[in-house]
Write a structure and sequence with these properties.
This protein is an alpha/beta fold. Helix content is about 45%, strand content about 10%. The protein has an eight-stranded parallel β-barrel, surrounded by six helices. The longest helix is centred in the last third of the chain and has 16 residues, at about 210-225.
């Protein structure tokens, strides 16, 4: 008999965008509106100030304001996870302490990027940040953005500590879920297009980008798969393929495509991003609209 994997943060989460005014200031009302939209449309939780939230461009003070706005908007109805990952341990520890004060449900901690520490440095970073706040940790393994994967030895050492409960896994290898779940982690796919592969290998759910406009549909795919209806899950997944291509097929996907999709859905009045990103141009928005319409999302 199959065992449904534990999901400490729910099954369906979206790494949410951060709204900005035309002058570049954080739009807290717009950010709260994004969170409310996500929770009203199929998401069990939201991840705040991750890559899609443009965290490399926001200050510690802004991160706190964003987190409080989201917590106030949806914290009584959904899980709120704070992105605290940076490539400076002291900076991440400061964000972790701030997240604990806000009262969120967990923190997302990505591999330090650019300076590329070895296994000992990664372990030091992860454990120091985890010790800075009494919050459960979701490690984030995304070598396409950080330049290196988390080695097995680091996963093994972190698994010995109670704080490390889950992994957002975006390495392109769903088979890695087997080893990670054997260590006790709940694993979330970090790649929308590989969701079924991750679920087939024992993942607990998804941390999504396409979930900005397809939370209900993606949650249904997960639910169908985990309740013994893989054919139904596959059918629902196939219907979403044009949206995956439209949202994730742009070179500078993420915040740019998420915000343009939210604009098309009427959640945001603009698609402002901070440099070095630039908004989708009109042709890219037209292609995005076509993909979302083909998937039945507009």
């Amino acid at each position: 008999m199959s065992v449904t994997p534990e999901a400490p943060f729910g099954r369906m989460l979206t790494a949410m965008a951060t709204a900005f005014h035309d002058d570049g200031r954080v739009d807290l009302d717009g950010t709260a509106a994004i969170a409310a939209h996500l929770v009203a449309h199929g998401n069990d939780g939201v991840v705040v100030s991750g890559t899609t939230g443009e965290s490399p461009t926001t200050t510690v003070e802004e991160d706190g304001e964003i987190l409080r706005a989201v917590k106030d908007a949806v914290g009584s109805d959904a899980v709120v996870i704070a992105g605290v990952g940076t490539n400076a341990t002291a900076h991440s520890a400061e964000l972790a302490r701030q997240a604990e004060k806000v009262g969120v449900d967990g923190m997302l901690l990505v591999t330090p990027y650019y300076n590329k520490p070895g296994p000992a440095g990664q372990l030091h970073h992860f454990t120091e940040v985890a010790a800075a706040a009494d919050l459960p940790v979701m490690l984030y393994d995304v070598p396409g953005r950080t330049g290196q994967a988390i080695p097995l030895e680091v996963y093994e050492r972190c698994a010995e500590l109670d704080a490390f409960v889950s992994v957002k896994h975006a390495t392109g290898d769903p088979t890695a879920v087997v080893g990670l779940t054997d260590l006790g982690y709940s694993v979330y796919s970090g790649d929308d297009a590989l969701l079924l592969g991750y679920l087939a290998h024992g993942a607990a759910g998804l941390v999504s980008v396409v979930g900005h406009v397809a939370g209900v549909q993606l949650h249904e795919v997960i639910d169908r798969f985990l309740t013994g209806d893989p054919a139904g899950a596959l059918a629902g997944f196939r219907r979403l393929l044009p949206a995956f291509t439209a949202v994730m097929g742009v070179t500078h996907y993420g915040a740019t495509t998420a915000k343009a999709a939210l604009e098309l859905a009427g959640v945001l009045s603009n698609r402002n991003v901070r440099g070095p990103l630039v908004p989708l141009d009109d042709g890219e928005v037209a292609a995005l609209r076509h993909g979302l319409e083909a998937a039945g999302l507009l």
